[in-house]
From TrEMBL:
Residues 66-324 form the Sulfotransferase domain. The keyword Electron transport does not apply. Coiled coil: none annotated. This is Sulfotransferase. It comes from Protea cynaroides. PANTHER family: SULFOTRANSFERASE SULT. It is an enzyme of class 2 (transferase).
Amino acid sequence: MNSQVSVLGYWEDEEALNQECKTLLPSLPKENGWADTQLYQYQGFWYTARSLQGVLTCQKHFQANPDDLFIITTPKAGTTWLKALAFTIVNRNQYSSFNHPLLTSNPHELVPYLEFNLFINNQIPDLTSFSSPRLFSSHLCYKSLPNSIKQLDCKLVYLCRDPRDTFISLWHFTNKLRAKTLGNLSLDEEFEKFCRGVCVNGPIWDHILGYWNESLESPDRVLFLKYEEMKMQPSVQLRKLAKFLGCPFSEEEEKEGMVEEILKLCSFDHLKNLNVNKNGKTKFGVEHTAYFRRGEVGDWVNHLTPEMMKQFEQIMEDKFHGSGLTF
Ligand code: A3P
């Protein structure tokens, strides 16, 4: 890989895109992205060209099953954690903590993204090896989800995180993906873009509100979780998640300490220190270590200036006012 090009840039060769995507791109609003890529606005949200191809392909070809389960987040909301937890809950009768797939696979391999993994190559993937209920993930906003997911009332678990922590986490993550020779991104510049909604899958406020409103309207179909609440009350949130996914913990499991066992298996410290996550890479060349940084609430206070904090507060007040959603 060219050392001047980031991991993202390497995968963003626009020449390699399919014709549909190539034809669409010139008609879309365009901005410089965070890494050395362009972002395009499609259906109100920002994507790299390559992930847009994945979005278009899965919108056209993904056919949901009624019992499919979806993990949905904005990037850096805690997707890795939620994937690990949901996979473990749903498959808990198949594995013990000795032969568990999380010991040898990164959570992103176990619960693939529709648009970033399965459909990114402009091909219809063979999903026959997925056992039921199939577990998928996505960073798509609600209105851009493939139609069959909505038509079949599939269950969606949405995890949101305080946008200030999401921003800082995204800034660190993107720095890790950039070519070392390019140095770190300017926090000021990325802050300005983030506030305008220009970041992968942004505007984050609209993304969050889309699922928040759906969860209020259809709580049986959309479970809305917060990273901060999962950190504060992990066992309460885990029980809620298991119940929503259709496999609540039995009395016997509770007595055996299953909740604590799952939380331990999927904990930040445990996952971060597994060999597969210390040394492995995704198919796209992202080092697994990049998904595990601090895993804490409130790290934004260590990065944002008082002016940035004020601006963030104002935007969050404006955007979430009247929605009932607070951070
Ligand atoms: P920080 O950068 O604040 O540390 P995503 O999985 O959506 O990419 O989000 C990554 C964020 O979730 C990172 O946040 C990462 O450290 C944190 N994270 C990863 N695994 C976690 C876990 N098991 N428990 C809590 N947080 C976790």
